[in-house]
Automatic annotation (TrEMBL), chains A, D:
The gene is dhaL. The keyword Transport does not apply. Coiled coil: none annotated. Signal peptide: none annotated. One of its GO terms (cellular component) is cytosol. It holds the Pfam family Dak2. This is Dihydroxyacetone kinase subunit L. It comes from the Bacteria.
Automatic annotation (TrEMBL), chains B, C:
The gene is dhaK. Its EC number is 2.7.1.121. Coiled coil: none annotated. It holds the Pfam family Dak1. This is Dihydroxyacetone kinase subunit DhaK. GO terms for molecular function: glycerone kinase activity; phosphoenolpyruvate-glycerone phosphotransferase activity. Keywords: Kinase, Transferase. One of its GO terms (cellular component) is cytosol. GO terms for biological process: glycerol catabolic process. Residues 7-330 form the DhaK domain. It comes from Methylophilus medardicus.
Length: 217, 332, 332, 217
């Protein structure tokens, strides 16, 4: 279903998308954070892109683990350990279940999200990246279980990610830096949620454009 | 944005290199991963390591030296350092008695130090500082932020560690000081993160941000600027209220720290001290120790914070003991 | 203008009161006329008195104490103090060995100290500091301004006076250091004099003032902002050129002082230090002593100055000797 | 010709005039100085006004000396010792020659200006207050010697003061704070010269309005 070569394509697609959304991401963390989230994401994306060839040559689980470790030593801040935990968590799960079905991949994604929740001691509804990631993980699991096509899954997950992002607007923040601001955060989107939406869109678009994923005519 | 810089990506390394060069008698810089350690490794004591995002100078690298920290891990500007930095620093300064991390309570710092601690091959403990009383402490938030009170923790625990105390005692003193310390900050202007290139928030000439942290996060509320005395009265009231909430006596000997956030002239800091000292004395406190200056900054923010630490004999003794770092020096 | 103040007319007194309260172990404040003196009057030594307009803190009050000044006379912001202040200060700290005035070379300071000296009932001498090499020294001008190099004069002459040297020797050392010291400053922003309520000059985000003093006077020229390295290279070149013009060797042991003008973060000062140290070393100098921080400020100006003092054994020994003041402290 | 009561009137007139010219004076010292000249002048004027009654009761020479000593301990900066020297110088001269003719007053004024020149080691043409004061002193001497009426003298000295002020515009500064600025001072008036012009106008206007000085009809 997915190999290290595809993973590398996703990595580059994600970098392109993050760079393209600089203004939005930066602005959000400036409004109710400390303004470094975009530059943190950029630094992480560059570091992973820098792995390039190396990733392609690794087995998928090792590639994911390498990404996690690289992010851990590159991003810093709150998002660094969280995204690192995501990839390390995914890698661990795929070591048990090879990625040979959408269900396995969904399960790995879900495990990554669980790892974030554990590391950050956070849940849905706290105005963080999890408000994008948790609904996406849930839908991914259920769509895969229903046997939906890769195409269908990608289209729906984009939608779910955008809704998750939008849902942070009306929330009070109870985790992360914005939690110090009380009512003042209402009306603002969460920066980490925005990054996740951008990254999920980038990967899904890559999936949708991949000829090998096109439904046979 | 107007700053002395060449390329934003090299700013931190260039600055740390200058720091290490100017103070080569005291400290040593390691790169990849980055940390600052004492020039002369201390022997047979608990190793004290702190760290956090850059932009708060002299915190933490300026507090590396005799009687204070063994190493500091600077992250990118306002961004927690990464676990590999902490591991390398611990490896370099561990002196057989375990490692104490002193961590300001921010999600990023907590998580990165936590992951480092999980991988650490030495006995270890962590003191979380959380002195900022602008943030209401409740189960619904990640809790209070660590701000300028961290300097007091680093100084006093540094002194205790130097005396040969064990890891548990060092942690206990750090936790005690944190519990007895409250801070609150106010900003007149925003700071500008070099990588962002423009001020983190916009604020008019007639407004201030009350209850800011040290990262240019907006404060609890924006309010019209008033006389310094009125602003300071609110800050002192917040601290006194916090002492009461923590069930601390609102009298007794205190250390009063008036901390500049980066762009506030000493003349104003002393004016603030003057008013704060009067109000705290009227409240029943006795100011037996004072510190006024830029000790925990937010890059180039105009603003200041007040920190009050309720002293006892133990804390005062460790505050007074000799210290030789870039940022604090006395008794030697 | 955004500042912590109550009424502009009371700012100075409130600030000085805070200073005296925070450092009551070290200094004492007298009002009407205003001066700051050592808490414990020194005995049987030349009395060192400096002073000048306020707004340069910690200069000069922050340098009152053991091993440095006996008293400081603060004027209004950027305005020379008046002779009655100097006379009262001299009366209070004179210890039988005469009085040495250390005066930054500005028309106002020179004339006020001169009138005080004319009325002084004690043996006296004056050291005029004039380290600013941005001002071309010629018979057509009042001469070079005294800026951050003054700190080095106060420290070293303070040490010599403490050792019991006589008035003439103290003056001679001060003059020698002044002769061997050059400084140059650059501003990124203007400062705001509280009484004026707005910035002294307007400057765009893409310009700097090269060759500024410490009063918000415009510099020698306005120029586009460039990389820090390029700006610093020009500053170092000006100092090296000045050394040559003064017939000083452009090699040998030096003290390098990177001084912040008030609103410049330490991170930038250390970046400046890094580049300046490299350039000066390449030039043939050996940097054997360093000082980085806000030592002679221009209220809230963003900017920095470089000061290079050519050391000899005598100067270095007096730089290293113990000092205990608010602004400089080591060895005790 | 002039007594302490009149002197007190002049003092108040000068204060009013300085306060009325705040913007101009402040601006000039901000442009090529350090921005404190207005506040220095104001502080000085308030201090002298504060002497009020005391001045009126003193003999003229003592009143002038008191003004000088008060300015010396109040203004500071460059202008403090200079204006102090002016009044102390005037007082000394009038001790020798009682102020019973315009010539004696002109001579005392001249002595005051000489005292400023000595204290400041400056001459005409250096872009300072002296570029107003020196021509005024010269004209005052010569008009008094020619036996001109008080009225005539006042009218002409106002003119001379204004011309003196204007003459500083094209000068290079070679004394005072502005001397560090080289060519950049050209085109700006000197702040101290402006204060002197304002004060001279204020005193001359007072003279012109004083009924005892009106030419008999
Ligand atoms: N405990 C947490 N759990 C999940 N996500 C979190 C948590 N704390 C912070 N975040 C996410 O991290 C983002 C901020 O990341 P970043 O700006 O890179 O780090 P920092 O907050 O340290 O400056 C927030 O927008 C939020 O989505
Ligand atoms: N040596 C001097 N001789 C005569 N006038 C001088 C001299 N130096 C300065 N001045 C006058 O003093 C004025 C500045 O006064 P002020 O601003 O009060 O003091 P400072 O220059 O110390 O800030 C100048 O505009 C100039 O007219
Ligand atoms: Mg952030
Ligand atoms: Mg951050
Ligand atoms: Mg002045
Ligand atoms: Mg002036």
């Amino acid at each position: 279903m997915i190999n290290s070569e595809q993973l590398t394509h996703y990595v580059f697609a994600v970098r392109t998308a993050i760079l393209a959304n600089e203004a939005d991401i930066e602005c959000l963390d400036r409004d109710i954070g400390d303004g470094d989230h975009y530059i943190n994401m950029k630094r992480g994306c560059e570091a992973i892109a820098g792995l390039g060839e190396t990733l392609t040559k690794l087995p998928l689980v090792d590639a994911l683990n390498s990404i996690g470790m690289k992010l851990l030593s590159t991003i810093g801040g709150a998002s660094g350990p969280l995204f690192a935990s995501f990839f390390i968590g995914m890698s661990k799960t795929l070591k048990v279940n090879a990625p040979d079905s959408a269900m396995h991949i969904a399960a790995a994604f879900d495990a990554g999200v669980q790892a974030i929740m554990q590391r950050g001691k956070a849940q849905a509804g706290e105005k963080t990246m999890l408000d994008v990631l948790i609904p996406v993980a849930e839908q991914f699991n259920s769509l895969a279980a229903q046997g939906k096509s890769t195409q269908e899954i990608a289209v729906i997950l984009k939608q779910v990610a955008s809704e998750g992002l939008e849902s942070t607007r009306s929330m009070l923040a109870t985790k992360g830096r914005a939690s110090g601001l009380g009512e003042r955060v209402i009306g603002h989107l969460d920066a980490g949620a925005k990054s996740c939406q951008v990254m999920i869109h980038a990967v899904c678009d890559q999936v949708l454009n991949d000829p090998s994923n096109q439904p046979s005519p | 944005m107007k700053k002395f810089l060449n390329h934003v990506d090299h700013m931190l390394t260039e600055s740390l290199s200058g720091f290490a060069a100017a103070h080569h008698d005291l400290v040593e810089l390691q790169l990849e991963p980055t940390f600052i350690a004492r020039k002369h490794k201390a022997q047979n004591k608990v190793a004290l390591i702190s760290g956090g995002g850059s932009g708060h100078e002299p915190l933490h690298a300026g507090y590396v030296g005799k009687g204070m920290l063994d190493a500091a891990c600077p992250g990118q500007v306002f961004t927690s350092p990464t676990p590999d930095q902490m591991l390398a620093a611990a490896e370099a300064v561990h002196a057989g008695q375990g490692v104490l991390f002193i961590v300001k309570n921010y999600a990023g710092d907590v998580m990165n130090f936590e992951m480092a601690a999980e991988m650490l091959p030495f006995a270890h403990a962590t003191v979380l500082t959380a002195d900022d009383c602008a943030v209401v402490n409740s189960t619904y938030t990640t809790g209070r932020r660590g701000v300028a009170g961290t300097v007091i923790v680093e100084k006093c625990v540094g002194s205790l560690a130097e005396s040969g105390a064990d890891l548990a005692s060092c942690k206990a003193l750090g936790d005690k000081i944190n519990q007895r310390t409250s801070s609150i900050g106010v900003a007149l202007t925003s700071c500008t993160v070099p990588a962002a290139g423009r001020p983190t928030f916009d604020i008019s000439d007639s407004e201030i941000e009350m209850g800011v942290g040290i990262h240019g996060e907006p404060g609890r509320r924006r309010e019209p600027i008033r006389d310094a005395d009125a602003i300071i009265a609110d800050m002192v009231a917040a601290i006194v209220h916090d002492f009461a909430a923590k069930q601390l006596p609102t009298q007794g000997n205190i250390l009063l720290l008036v901390n500049g956030l980066g762009a506030t002239p000493l003349m104003e800091l002393y004016l603030i001290y003057n008013t704060a000292a009067k109000l705290l004395t009227a409240q029943g406190f006795q100011i037996t120790r004072s510190l006024v200056g830029n000790y925990t900054t937010a890059i180039d923010m105009a603003g200041a914070s007040l920190t009050v630490c309720l002293l006892d004999d133990e804390i005062q003794q460790h505050w007074d003991s000799p210290v030789h770092t870039v940022g604090l020096r006395w008794g030697c």
